[in-house]
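Recall from the previous lesson that a structure prediction takes nothing but the amino acid sequence as input. Here we apply that procedure to Probable TraG protein, N-terminal part from Desulfotalea psychrophila. The sequence below is the only information supplied.
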Amino acid sequence: MKMPQYGLNRKTKSSSYKYIPLIVVCLWFFACSFYCTQQIALLYNYHPYLGGHVYSNLYLPWSCFLWLQDPDLDHNSIIKIIDDGSLYFVFPLILMFSVLLLTGRRGKGRGDLHGTAKWANKKEIKKSGLLGGKGAYVGGWEDRDRSTIYLMHDGPEHILAFAPTRSGKGVGLVLPTLLSWEHSALIFDIKGENYALTSGYRKSLGQKIIRFEPNDTTGSTAKFNPLSEIRINTIHATADAQNIANMICDPEGKGLRDYFDRAAVAFMTGLILHTVATNQDGSLADSVAFITDPRWADDVKDLFSFIIDETDHAKKLLETYPEMAEDTAGKLEKSIKSYAGECLIKASKELSGVISTAISNLSLFRDVIVAGNTSSSDFCFDDIMDGETPSSLYLIIPPSDIDRLQPLIRLFFNMFLRRITERMEFDQGRSIDSHKHRLLIMFDEFTSIGKLEITQKSLAYMAGYGIKFYFIVQDIK
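The prediction returns the following tokens.
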């Protein structure tokens, strides 16, 4: 079985080089034979009897062997000259092969034992496609005349940059990329610097600029309600709600660790569906307000009785969405009441633990600032890659609020990546671009938002949807 080749591919010498020693030996034998022939001819003073001359006093190189068989010539003298010529032939060959043997043994070691990495030359850089002059900046290369040539990557592959703090990653990679990338972009902007320095220019290119800062108190941020992405009037409603519930109940991306986490997912799925079905503009803040309503203070099971007995979800859905199929509305109502019924049959203490877990995971949306900025949506995910013009969405999170807002950040990215990779179109058996615009996702300080499992799983196929990730991390730890 052939072992895989790792490292850089080195050009090997042509196999024809192995014939060089044989050619050298033949030429040296030819020269020594010529020497012996001329010495014998000189001994006989170039007598006409010798014959075989080519020109003047020059004879054919192998004539010495023919003269050795001539009984009329002095064999002893001829043999002595041939013996001398043999020494001239053998000793240099012994010396040459000794040198080749020594150098050959030294060269049998692994030439790439300590790695094959090296600085690329211009030909190799050009072959890699980094001199195209468009795309994302990945570095620079100094030409022979000391001028700097910027290296830019525009292929479908993703980019990972290691850049320690204060190493110039912002001015060297991030800003130049955002000022040159012509397509849509989603920028995770911790300090807000990228928005301040690049949004104006990108807007001048005709792009739609969206600034989403969940903790903004000035009213200048765009709003985003995660529940507005639930396609409540379609058969996808339950799946959309389940995805949101899973992310909320697993805020750190460590998995659903115990029974109460898993049970809270089912409870929250039904709660989210109830919220959106009864209120077109319902938000997660509305959900947490509903389950903490004083009406259920005496007996929390009254909440589920209210959902099952006193709420006509199908009627409300059909009033809000006239185009919705009655069958779809009926099935969705049945699903909502099923989730409520599951909670209604639980023991009081068990149910109390499930609800407490859900409320704990929704606590972020009890913050009036976050609740206000997630109460409605000024944009939707389809705007980013399928709008009339490319869009640039800046997600701004101050460093002081990263830990607190981490659940919302992870929820946002998880929902976004799932939505834009839902469909893939094909033409004659080959995949084609499913979206109008390509998308660059600039992830500076990627590790700060915790484990994002959807990113890990989707990297292999994201390029097929026209999505290019640009990860920037400080180290591998």
